[in-house]
Amino acid sequence: MIYFDNSATTEIYPASLDTYVKTSKRVFGNPSSLHYLGVQANRLLEQARKQIADTLQVSNEEIAFTSGGTEGDNWILKGTAFEKRSYGKHLIISSIEHPAVKKTAEQLTHFGFEVDQAPVTEEGIIDVNQLAELIREDTILVSVMAVNNEVGTIQPIQEISTLLEKYPKIHFHVDAVQAIAKIDTQKWLTPRVDFAAFSAHKFHGPRGVGFIYWKKGRRLQALMTGGGQEGEQRSGTENVPAIVAMARALRLTFEKINQRPEHLNHLKDALMKGLSTYDKVTSFFSRRK
Ligand SMILES: Cc1ncc(COP(=O)(O)O)c(C=O)c1O
Question: Where in this chain does the record put each Aminotransferase class V domain (predicted)?
């Protein structure tokens, strides 16, 4: 079988699955427990955090674990709304966001928040000038995905970052679930990006696990309250085997990208530009005949 649905989900790498099974069997302590097994689990958890942070070239404290992309998007939108409700009630999302962002924003409208959707061009790319016109005094968040999950269009995160330099109080969230390990990190994790959401099953890791990038100094309210894990920000006993297996999958994915031959990078860039790239792909193949 040739599997072509990798934007929906990917097959777990055997090495990631192996890590999951071994960690489940051998390091089953609760990372919050003070005994040896707990300390061991906590050490693995922190190693996984460091590995992910190093891969993205951010610091360890800027990575928080979640159950996947949907939770990450929910956390960032609702956490911003709850945190900043006394400053403003206006959010901007793009009109082509994943339902994890769109439906969350819509839910917030039932709690007194106002949401505007930035339109896209015929090619499915956000018009940055139109986005700029939507910004208000009371805007608290702009949320734009880096790569669209249906047509693969790459959104102008660098241009939006430049625009938002003028509005330092607005939280800038990037849903990077489809972008990580597909396009260069600096294209979507710019210094102006405050938050980003990720999901392991899109890069050959296990399902039901992910993480968010949360820039140091920015504030979010917790979505999950309880035992105070993740520095009181995301309660619930950590899924250590899945987190460690996710870190391994991410490392392997980045290693594979770095080994990718030049001509495949060309094809990848062409494919990622969405439907309009059909011509480029065919011309690429005709050049290689
Ligand atoms: C762009 C985007 N955001 C969020 C999600 C949700 O991620 P998860 O399946 O981990 O909840 C997906 C999944 O398809 C996605 O493509």
Answer: 2-284
